[in-house]
UniProtKB/TrEMBL annotation:
Keyword set includes Nuclease: no
InterPro entries, per the entry: Syd, Syd_sf
Localization (cell): Cell inner membrane
Family: Belongs to the Syd family.
Domain of life the protein comes from: Bacteria
Assigned GO CC terms: cytoplasmic side of plasma membrane
Keyword Cell inner membrane annotated: yes
Pfam family, any one: Syd
UniProt membrane topology term: Peripheral membrane protein
Name assigned to this protein: Protein Syd
Function description: Interacts with the SecY protein in vivo. May bind preferentially to an uncomplexed state of SecY, thus functioning either as a chelating agent for excess SecY in the cell or as a regulatory factor that negatively controls the translocase function.
UniProt keyword terms in alphabetical order: Cell inner membrane, Cell membrane, Membrane
Amino acid sequence: MNDISTELKQLTQNYVDLWQQESGFPPASHELYGVPSPCISRTGDNVVYWLPQPFTGRDKLEKVEKAMGIIIRSELHDYFTTQYAGDMQVRFDSLNFTLLQIWSEEDFIRLQENMIGHLVTQKRLKLTPTLFIGTTASENDIISVCNLSGEVILETFGQKKREVLADNLSLFLTKLTPVFDK
């Protein structure tokens, strides 16, 4: 857990620092305004400002494992149970995307339900199981981790089209650059 946890926390701190430098405030979200979270540091006009907080849930992704009859890679358990934070805008090479984070315990439950739905679709289509960690501007393209190889990929939902971005999640996190997107 140390690598993934440490790298995610460092990336998040870099994101917070960028927001502080560019705006004088912590990261802000209009989409999360009015949604309870331990991350909320203050609210404004239709905006919530957030700072990361330690994940306090007891569960990891065991419910997804049980529902799907699979073992999820340990780095994915670690990734999703390191912290509560808002989603972050980041760049990998020339690809800008949203790195998904857990906003609250309720959000963690919703994420697991969405993962189960994603994995059911993949199973039905006989695709290798992946777990998503990011969304792109395209509705169909997502950033995922292959549960078999551990590679981070850009995949088109429901299709075999996949592009390897990094050999593993640890390496991928170190190559992300925060983007200020007010």
